[in-house]
C-alpha cells in the first residue's frame, strides 16, 4: 500500500476568514498603541492611564448598546473573570517593567502564544494540531529576535512578565469561550467596566496625581478609542469564529506592526536579526492560518488486476 497525497481539508468558511482578518487588524491596532502608551506614561501613572481609557471604552460601548445593556446571571462569572485577568495581566506587565527591559517584557509576554495551546491541552484536553505547535515555536523565536535582537539578559522583573504571559493566555482563552456564549458588545463592555473599576481603585492607592501634559491626553484618547474601544471589542468579535490557538498566533503580529510603525513614524532602527524575527512571526501566522490546505497523507490500496 504505497503512500499517496490527497487534497487536504476544505478551505475555511467565509466566517473563519473574516474572523482571521479582524484579529489581524486587531494586532495592527494594538501595535499602534505602543506609541500612545509611551507618550502617556511620561506624565501619568499606569493605573490612571488604564482607568481613564477603559472608562472611555465602557461609556462608548454603553452609548452604542443603549437599551440593549443587560447581563444574564449565567454570564457574570465569565465577564468578571475576563475583566480581572485583563487588569492583572496589564498590572504584572507594568510592575515587571520597573526592573526589566522593554525588550525582555516584549519577549516574555509573547510566550503566551505557546502557553495557550499548552493550557488547552493540559486542562481542556484539546487536540492541538502539530502545525499549531510549530507555528507557536516560530512565533516565540521570532518574538525573541524582534524584541531582544537575539540577546536576552535576565532581570528581576522577568518573573512578573512571565506570570503576566500566563494571565494573558488565560484572558485569550476566556474571551474565546465567552464570545460564543453571549452578545459580543455586552461582553466587551462588561470586561471594560471591571478593568476600569480595578484600575481606578489602583490609581487611588498607588498613583501620584500630577497634571498630565496636553499630548498625554491625546494619547489617552487615541488609546481609548482604538486599542481599547476598537481593539479589545474586535478581539471578542474575531474570536467568535476563530480557534483560540490561531488567534494567539495572529496576535503575535502585534510586535511586528509595532516595530514597523516605530521604524516609519519614530525613526527607530531595525537590526537584521529583528527583521528576521518579523519574517519568522509572519511565517508562523501563515502556517497557522493555511494548515487546512496542507495535503493529508493517506494510505490507499494499490489495485491490481
Task: Tell me about this structure.
Keywords: Cell membrane, Membrane, Transmembrane, Transmembrane helix. InterPro entries: Diverse_Substrate_Transporter (IPR051258), EamA_dom (IPR000620), EmrE-like (IPR037185). Belongs to the EamA transporter family. It is a single chain. This protein is an all-alpha fold and 305 residues long. It has one domain. The chain is built from twelve helices and two strands. It has a two-stranded antiparallel ribbon. Helix 2 packs antiparallel against helix 8. The longest helix is centred in the first third of the chain and has 28 residues. The N terminus and C terminus are likely disordered.
Tag the structure with descriptive keywords.
globular, disordered C terminus, two-stranded antiparallel sheet, mainly alpha, 305 residues
Task: Give the secondary structure arrangement, pairings included.
Blueprint: E1 3-6, H1 14-41, H2 46-65, H3 76-97, H4 102-109, H5 112-123, H6 130-148, H7 158-178, H8 184-206, H9 214-239, H10 244-251, H11 253-265, H12 272-289, E2 296-299
Antiparallel strand pairs: 1-2
Helix pairs in contact: 1-9, 1-10, 1-11, 2-8, 2-9, 3-7, 3-8, 4-6, 4-7, 5-7, 5-10, 6-12, 8-9
**Main pleated sheet:** 2 strands, antiparallel
Order of strands in the sheet with the most strands? Answer: 1-2
Give the distance, in angstroms, between the N- and C-terminal Cα atoms.
Answer: 15 Å
The best one-word shape is globular
Order of helices and strands: EHHHHHHHHHHHHE
Residues in helices, as a percent range: over 70%
Q: What structural class do helix, strand and pairing data support? A: mainly alpha
Radius of gyration: 21 Å
